[in-house]
Amino acid sequence: MRKLILSFLAGTLFGLGLCVSQMIDPQKVIAFLDVSGNWDPSLAFVMIGALLVTVISFPLVLRRPSPFWGECFAVPATRKIDGPLITGSILFGIGWGLAGLCPGPAIAGLAYGMHKSIIFVLAMISGMIIYQIWSNWTISKSSQKE
Predict the structure, then answer these.
(1) CB-based contact 93:23 (threshold 8 Å)
(2) Residue 87 in 3-state DSSP?
(3) What is the pLDDT of residues 9-24, one digit of tens each?
């Protein structure tokens, strides 16, 4: 129960940060991404702040033998840059640029009943389901060949 409460509080704090920084406003994000037009650099300060916290705290946290409320850290086992990683990054960037939303801010925007967030989250969930179905189909198809 303690872990659940702490997870809820951490998620709430993260969501509040997204709201205060206005990252849930697609127009604000698109203005930040529009470097050749009417550029709004204010979100750069949000990103710099997040990077500073990460760069300082990540090495300190990983010195611990395990997380406070977990058995092990969820750190990627490989640093390999492959096709799926590149493809996913490109799709993420295109989606972020077109919609002005990414998953975290879109979910935070649901608390305000923002129509664009609702559509985005439904499309995101649909994409996850389609990918899972495709992935399972591909795996079963390759195992049938063996």
Answers:
(1) no
(2) helix
(3) 988 998 898 888 888 8
Q: How many Cα neighbours within 13 Å face the side chain of 78?
A: 4
Angle between helices 26-33 and 42-62 (to 10 degrees): 90
Separation of alpha carbons 120 and 24, rounded Å: 12
Gap between the Cα atoms of 47 and 64, Å rounded: 26
Q: Provide the b/e sequence for 90-100 (b: ≥16 CB within 10 Å).
A: eeeeebbeebb
Nearest to 53 by CA among 89, 17, 102, 6: 17
Token pair 């198809």: residue: 141
Question: C-alpha angle 61/103/130, rounded to 5°?
Answer: 115
Query: Three-state DSSP class for 80?
Result: coil
- Please name which of 48, 30, 45 lies closest in space to residue 105, comparing C-alpha atoms: 30
Task: Report helix, strand or coil for 121.
Answer: helix
Name the pTM for this structure: 0.71
| Displacement of CA 79 from its chain's centroid (Å) | 19
Q: Give residue limits of the domains in the chain.
A: 2-145
- Rounded CA-CA distance 48/32 in Å is 14
